[in-house]
Amino acid sequence: MHAPTPLIPGRKGNTYTTPGTPPFYMDDTAAAWNALRGATFLEKLTLIGIERGRTVDIRDLAAIGRDYGIGIYLFFEKDLATTRTLEEMQEEFRDVPEYERPYVSVARFLQFTKENDPSFARTLEEFPLMIEIVAIGEIRNPATVTTTPFVTGLMPFLDEFDIDVDPTAQSQERNR
User: Fold this and answer.
1) Residue 149: inside a domain, yes or no?
2) In the chain, how many domains are there?
3) With a threshold of 0.90, does the pTM exceed it?
4) Would residue 24 count as lying in a domain?
5) How far does the chain reach from its first CA to its final CA, in angstroms?
6) What is the C-alpha separation between 20 and 6, in angstroms, rounded?
């Protein structure tokens, strides 16, 4: 059992803890995942702030995915995000170049945006990109006979941005 990690400095309205790094005695994501309380993967995800319908800062999603070994994917089309499974999408688009698919991993999205716009990280400080959690599940790897938790989220559309509203406060209201 590890002590809760502190809130992320400088983030408004962060109502749950998201570790920047796993506790000092955890050398891998499996150990960090296994240290979470909860009998099921849904209980563990809830403990780290991942619940269907909740909106979460994209930076927090990236940290959660990195620290706990969770596959986190962003969808650009609402219909696909809400009517198709991640496995269906991966199968359908496996031969399509990564940046031409209607979804992308959060890590690759952030890497791409930072490489193409060095000011993107600074922009996220002022205007956090809030992702709506659409689905939570587990993907089975037939080669290793293991399962990996995954989260799919929906990217907001440009017309949904309201720069006069604090998106983290909006997230707190939605999740009460």
Assistant:
1) yes
2) 1
3) no
4) no
5) 28
6) 9
